[in-house]
Every structure is written in structure tokens, then in C-alpha cells.
Write a structure and sequence with these properties.
The protein has 13 helices and 10 strands. With 334 residues, it is of the alpha/beta class. The protein has one domain: Alpha-Beta Barrel (TIM Barrel), CATH 3.20.20.
């Protein structure tokens, strides 16, 4: 039985992390709620949010509507802190996706074809089937702030437990040991299943692994065909840490890349689908693309019915070589 968006996972420590997640950076309010509901209906079983995104309440509303969490009070106000370091995701470039219409037309006939589930199953999702990730704002890195802010996150999400809690980025507000001890304490009390980090270098990740009483199961970083993470990925694979790729479509650059589209032609896949397949086909890598339209949410999930050859994997990797020189030439900078 082939993998689907609902079943493909990455094993890291004692965590089973769905290989393709749904990113929500820079989405708030009804747009975020509708997108997460659609993603869950399509078959996504990994939802990524953060205190910094100001959208945990909207995510919680979508989870509740899908049968995952308890109902949360609707609010027209923002959920939390400013999105000062949140990554700009891929919505900006969706209109450049030349081939999504072809794949999307088939998916619109059966929106669940990427997951293999029936329509009834897609409308109601069990809590144990959804992997929910949120992140501690770097400003909340002190012990008491970690504890308080995470409990507030759970309240906004309408959940008793979050599957994975990340420190959003290295912080100067408290020693890393203090932050991780608080996160471990949240595990002890059942509020958090797994812990991890985000935007950590190899050296910072090594320190986190040494300081945490429980496994650091993930490091969420920017990773796409134009921004490689070779050293970090090698480290993560060797230490059983999932590398979760945010901004996997390079903030809208990938959809218009003719070289990636050409690689996808034999499979009737778009440039975006090739890039996402390249990511999840690598050992220990998960990806969390963002989209707001059903067409793109479905297209991003439709990457489990083909496999790139070794030569094609290498070709995608090579797309990023010299990308900045090409950009400079295009802009007339040299």
C-alpha cells in the first residue's frame, strides 16, 4: 500500500511525525481557520502553528470543527505576540504555479484522493491522528514564561496536550538549559508529548540535545532547493532528529522554476510538487508548505504517487547551485 499525505511519517526518537504538514505562518483569522479545515479534510495530519503567528485560536477553531479539539471561543483579536521572525511562506507565489490546474482538476473531483480516506472520514478526524506543533516565542524563554505561555497556547488551541513543542529560535531571554527544563517539565505534567527547537545551528542543536532530559526530536529550519542545509541535515540524520523544512517553496520562487517543472513533466507534476517530493524523499525530512486555496492545498498533498530517481534528486539539488549569481544577473547587479 503506497503512502499518502495521511500516512507518510518520519521517525525521530520516539516520535512519529507526519512527513507533510500544513504550515500557517502569516495566516490569521478566518483565512487560517478555513485553510486548516480544508487541509484536514484533504488528509493532512500535521498542523504547524506558533505563539508568534497570532493564529493559535484560529487553528484551534479549525481543529474543533474537524472533531480534533474542544470548541474554543471565537475572537476577532489576535492571539499573541508579533510575527517578527516568522517566515514568509509560499502564498505569494501561488499564482505562478503553471501546472497546478491540471493536477488540481483531478483532485477537485475527489478532494480526498491524496489521503485515501472517505468523505465522511475526512470531515471528522480523531485527535490521535493529528500531530499538532506549536512554538514558544523567544521572548517567553524564561521558565515561568515557558510554562504560562504554553498553557495559554493549549487553551487557544482547545487541546489538553500538544504533540510537539518547539523553541521558536535561540533566545537571549534565558539560558537554554532553563528553557528546556521548563519544556521537559511540561512533558512530565502531560501538556507536551515531544520537544524540539527551530532555527538552530548544528552547534546550538548539539547543546540542546545535551541539556534536554528527553530527546530533541525536531529542528525546524528554512530548507528548499535554493537554500541547502547539508551539514545540519547530516547531523540530524545521524542523531535521529527530524529536520522540518519551513518555507519549502522558497516564498513563491519554486512554482515558477522551469527547471523543476521539466523534472516533473514525466510524472505530470508541477515544480512545487517536485520540490516537495525532493524534500520528503530525503531521510529524516518533513516539510510544512502553506497555502490558502483548496487547489493548492490539494496539489501540495499530491506528491506520494511518484518517486524521483537518484539523478532527478541530484538535479533538484543542483537547481540551487549559483542561484544568487543568477538572481544578481537577472537584476542587473553584475
Amino acid at each position: 500500500m503506497r503512502e499518502t499525505v495521511s500516512t507518510a511519517t518520519v521517525t525521530a526518537g520516539n516520535a512519529e511525525i507526519p512527513a507533510l504538514g500544513f504550515g500557517t505562518a502569516r495566516m490569521t483569522g478566518d483565512e487560517c481557520r478555513r485553510a486548516v479545515e480544508t487541509a484536514l479534510e484533504v488528509g493532512y495530519r500535521h498542523v504547524d502553528t506558533a505563539q508568534m503567528y497570532d493564529n493559535e485560536r484560529a487553528v484551534g477553531e479549525a481543529l474543533a470543527a474537524s472533531g480534533v479539539g474542544r470548541e474554543v471561543e471565537r475572537s476577532e483579536t489576535s492571539d499573541g505576540a508579533s510575527d517578527e521572525v516568522a517566515s514568509r511562506e509560499d502564498e505569494r507565489g501561488e499564482s505562478a504555479e503553471k501546472r497546478a490546474g491540471a493536477t488540481g482538476s483531478e483532485q477537485r473531483e475527489d478532494p480526498g484522493n491524496a489521503s485515501g480516506e472517505t468523505a465522511s472520514e475526512r470531515r471528522h478526524v480523531s485527535r490521535e491522528d493529528v500531530f499538532v506543533v506549536t512554538k514558544v516565542h523567544p521572548d517567553n524563554a524564561a521558565r515561568d514564561d515557558v510554562l504560562e505561555s504554553t498553557r495559554e497556547s493549549l487553551e487557544r488551541l482547545g487541546l489538553e496536550t500538544v504533540d510537539l513543542l518547539l523553541l521558536h529560535a535561540p533566545s537571549d531571554r534565558a539560558p537554554l538549559e532553563e528553557t528546556l527544563t521548563a519544556m521537559n517539565d511540561l512533558q512530565d505534567e502531560g501538556a507536551v508529548d515531544h520537544v524540539g527547537v527551530s532555527n538552530f545551528s548544528v552547534e546550538q542543536l548539539e547543546s540542546a540535545r545535551e541539556l534536554s532530559e528527553t530527546p530533541i526530536v525536531a529542528n525546524q529550519v528554512k530548507y528548499h532547493p535554493y537554500h541547502h542545509q547539508d551539514d545540519l541535515l547530516e547531523y540530524c540524520v545521524d542523531r535521529d532528529v527530524c529536520l522540518t523544512a519551513y518555507s519549502p517553496l522558497a516564498e513563491g520562487t519554486v512554482p515558477g522554476d522551469d527547471r523543476l517543472a521539466e523534472i516533473g513533466e514525466p510524472y505530470d507534476k508541477s515544480a512545487s510538487q517536485v520540490a516537495l517530493r525532493w524534500l520528503v524523499q530525503q531521510p529524516g525530512v518533513a516539510a510544512i508548505p502553506k497555502a490558502s486555496s483548496r487547489e493548492h492545498i490539494e496539489a501540495n498533498a499530491d506528491i506520494f504517487d511518484f518517486e524521483l530517481s537518484a539523478n532527478e534528486m541530484a538535479a533538484v539539488t543542483e537547481v540551487g547551485d549559483g542561484v544568487w549569481n543568477r538572481l544578481a544577473a537577472k537584476l542587473g547587479l553584475h
